[in-house]
């Protein structure tokens, strides 16, 4: 949906959940010397300013990344590096987290259709080893798979402003795994009072790990929590999810 911009939600509780798990997965996947490919369907701009009018309007960062002290971990190391480069109010999106944690032998392929977000993404992440595409995320990721290196991680993180997107994510995940069985797919989705995410969860006919957390935003509206699904999860992914629960105790409440 071309009206969505993540700058209003950067650094919020859902980002803390998603980015902690993402950073740990990337650290796990890069332990061996073999290169990996990292792909995103909805990359956003890659870098956010938590002192911006957009961020301050919602105040989600104050209830997320700025409300918790995290132990030393891949995400904290990334935050430290980004803030040294861009200032104390800088917050990385998932593409920037990936670029910081990946190595010379790894490759990034990032899809973003929104014209303003894509322009900012080019400014923030253009460089060697990074391929940027202004195109539909599902079409773009599917077109370039299987990539080289063949081992890899795909993040599917749409806005879900269109109700049919939950079913679309499930259907796309099946098609992608058929074409690229070596891939690990990480899907993020919001938890809302309408429980629309159930269409996604119940639509998946593949083995997966699911991790959901709840949180209370001050306005009492919108998201009540954050969900992640891992398809073809690497070994020890369940330990990562348990570790994240311990790291975010008091901010995120494990569900189920």
Describe the structure.
By secondary structure, this protein is an alpha/beta fold. The protein has one domain: Rossmann fold, CATH 3.40.50. Helix content is 38%, strand content 20%. Strands 5-4-1-6-7-9-8-10 form an eight-stranded mixed sheet, with helices on both faces. The protein has a two-stranded antiparallel sheet with strand order 2-3. Helix 5 links the parallel strand 4 (107-111) and strand 5. The radius of gyration is 17 Å and the shape is globular.
Notable features of this structure?
256 residues; 9 helices; 8-stranded mixed beta sheet; 38% helix; Rossmann fold; two-stranded antiparallel ribbon; alpha/beta
The amount of beta strand, in percent, is 15-25%
Query: For this structure, what is the CATH homologous superfamily?
Result: Vaccinia Virus protein VP39
Number of domains: 1
CATH C-level class is: Alpha Beta
Strand order of the largest sheet: 5-4-1-6-7-9-8-10
Radius of gyration from the alpha-carbon trace, in angstroms? 17 Å
Q: Please tally the helical runs, counting DSSP H or I stretches of 4 or more residues.
A: 9
The poorly predicted ranges are: none
| Average residue-wise pLDDT | 93
The beta-strand count equals 10
Helix and strand content put the structural class at alpha/beta
CATH architecture: 3-Layer(aba) Sandwich
Q: What is the CATH topology classification name?
A: Rossmann fold
Shape: globular
Helical residues, percent = 25-40%
Q: Main beta sheet: strand number and arrangement?
A: 8 strands, mixed
H-E order: HEEHHEHEHEHEHEHEEHE
How widely separated are the two ends?
30 Å
